[in-house]
Amino acid sequence: MDISPKILIIIPLQIITILAFFPIAQKLKLYDVPNERSSHKHVTFRGGGIIIPISLLFYTIFFGAQNNYLIAGVLLASAISFYDDIKGSNPFVRLICHFVSVGIVMMDITNGYHFLPIITILIAIIAVAAVNAYNFMDGINGITGLYTLSIYETIYFYNYKIENVFDPNLILILTMAILIFGFYNFRSNAIMFAGDVGSVSLGLIAVFYILFLVVHNNNLIYLSIVAVYGVETGLTIIYRLMKGQNIIHPHRMHLFQDLVNIAKIPHLVVAFGYVIIQVLVNFGMFYCISHQLNGLLFLTYIIILLSCCYIIIKYQIYKRYVVPNEKN
Fold first, then answer.
1. Assessment of whether the complete model's pTM goes beyond 0.90
2. How many other C-beta atoms can be found within 10 angstroms of the C-beta atom of residue 94?
């Protein structure tokens, strides 16, 4: 893999971008004010994830036309998401833009592959759902940035050890963008949140990498790269449906929110815990790949294991913290 020294030019530009964002955020009044659903207590800037699409523009400027469909799709999704951060957008319009963005990105994924229309539509629906789930998971300090690092560095490792199919320069540029943003977010009291523009951009890029590997290798094992988020999202949706809630409405019933808001575990401890578990899953995935073990069997095992952990921890939090308070 060839790493270009151009990255050393891009990093200062990324730092300037994040610094320039603060006066812009003040002018646009991009503040996240705590409410009853929040896991933070102080007014915080939101929209700092704008560094992600801008970093893609830097990549295009310095490295030329590569992954054009990916970048075009992410920029479209970023535009509607940033508008949503500023003023709020119509949910239907936002959903349509997400489908269009995913459709554009899929042109990079399915290049050279031919699927039945129904399969293409199904993949698009799953991808849009995954991007929105990624957005909903952005609920505590550090979790989106740190978890995304676990995904991108797994992709980088795959690129290095198994097959060089992605440009490592793009992965490193995105990694630096997350770390620069993380300087303001990976804290007990965050100075900046990613906003929809950040979580949607990061989620769509993650979806691109993972779906590409699934399609390219015809192996579902690569879905385990987001197993922790996937199980958390799926079981939280089921839990809310069981309680008769509208799953579209905002909430704070994710397990990681319970750990922070009810069990009072620090944000970064929970975020790092999620990352460590996902990294262990990824190591298991690479072990299965290197030993040519059944990928679907491994994925099924991981889903069952994580589901059991989710249910047990959720029950223990309810039993230890919620029930005693209800009695009092």
1. yes
2. 18
